[in-house]
Amino acid sequence: MPVARYIRETMNSKGAGVIRKMFEEGVKLKQQYGEDNVFDFSLGNPDLDPPAAVRQTIQTVAEVCPKNYHGYMPNAGYPFAREAMAQKTAEEQGVAVSGNCVVMSVGAAGALNCLLKAILNEGDSVVVPAPFFAEYRHYAHNYGGTLIEVPCKQDFSLDIEAIKTALTAETAAVLINSPNNPTGRVYSEEEIEALANVLNAHAAATGRKPYLICDEPYRAITYDGVKVAATFPHYDSAVVVSSFAKNLSLPGERIGYICVNPVCPDREELVAACIFATRILGFVNAPALFQRVVSEAWRAPADYSLYKKRRDELVAILDEAGIEHANPEGAFYLWCKVPSQFNGDDMAFTDYLKKYLILAAPGSGFGGKGWFRLAYCVSEKSILNSRKAFVTAMAEL
After folding, report:
1. Are 185 and 156 in contact (CB under 8 A)?
2. More confidently predicted of 16 and 217
3. Which of 107, 301, 336, 377 has the fewest CB atoms within 10 Å, measured from its CB?
4. Could you tell me the CA-to-CA distances from 236 to 85, 147, 258, 275, 320 in Å, in that order?
5. What percent of the chain has pLDDT over 70?
């Protein structure tokens, strides 16, 4: 019996899972050529250790084991964990938030899947500014939805008029990611306010109010004084989705949450729907141990200056090599232009870079044909050692 048509066609397509494929190829290349001779910028896998306070909290909660400590809890998560995430969101959004607005999740990816399951009907659409995190396409398709890709402006700020044009009666949500993966762009408060005005006007005209989904796992990682704008004060139907994969370097622990704006008109029903989706999608609940960890340690101080240093070092190398790139305000990615010799073929150019043992992610998977992404959450040594490879690769074109 064959596998599902969509799965077979998608996983066998040229661009499917290219980031993971690059990462796995990097493991093989490192075994062949040595760890220091392969420059793997493919995957956003933080190489910084979790902060000391987080590591200590892990040890502390792991040593405590009263009866049913590792048992089931309500599908929404422990009440104390929901309250902690409500406090976190309140401080970020500048409004009062209570725990009954929160659903704990299996990472931000699990949160997005539960939220989209809760809001999408067959044939609905989700509007997303492009470029965007590659998996969004699959997340929307999982529940009968379609991702509507709307190009950003040249500086990767939101094209509000283009988003307005893309809205229809089938639009269930607009999904934004700030700081953005892959561009590093942080959307300003003016952009958020303008977007909220467009969504409110659309709701008045059509009778259907799209949710504004804010995917924010990189919120804490910004540079040069840039701040991530709050959305709750500007739009009542905003929903924040986040995790601790990036800011606390816990990607493999899969712990995140959904937080619905407390003034959302259908907040109670939406939260209940997300809780129900958590159960029927088979997540059941977020990991018990790490609900306890993040409840205690979400304020743990982390030093992101190392990412800024690495950004600046990689930028200097790319400038020397002659590779055009955007200037990220946050996250830990460089969004780079494919050289003109390749006529916008990002797949061909990333294949070319592999000859020099440089692994990069093609931009087509992010809705950004003609670009490629470099993740600089790698060791400083790897970045500095990559200089010769980049310069040589460009010189030999």
Report:
1. yes
2. 217
3. 301
4. 19, 23, 15, 20, 47
5. 97
Structure tokens of 262?
A: 């407390």
How confident is the model over 315-319, as a mean pLDDT?
A: 98
Let me know: does 195 contact 174? Beta carbons within 8 Å: yes
Residue with structure tokens 């909660």?
61
User: In whole angstroms, how far apart are CA 3 and each of 15, 64, 71, 146, 337?
Assistant: 19, 44, 34, 22, 37
Find the mean pLDDT for residues 202-219.
98
| Axis-axis angle for helices 267-280, 107-119 (nearest 10) | 120
Identify the bridge partners of residue 149 per DSSP, sorted by sequence position.
128
Residues 95, 99, 104, 110: is their CA dihedral positive or negative? negative
Cα–Cα distance, 104 to 107 (Å, whole number) = 9
Half-sphere exposure of 99 (CA within 13 A, CB side): 11
- What pTM did the predictor assign? 0.95
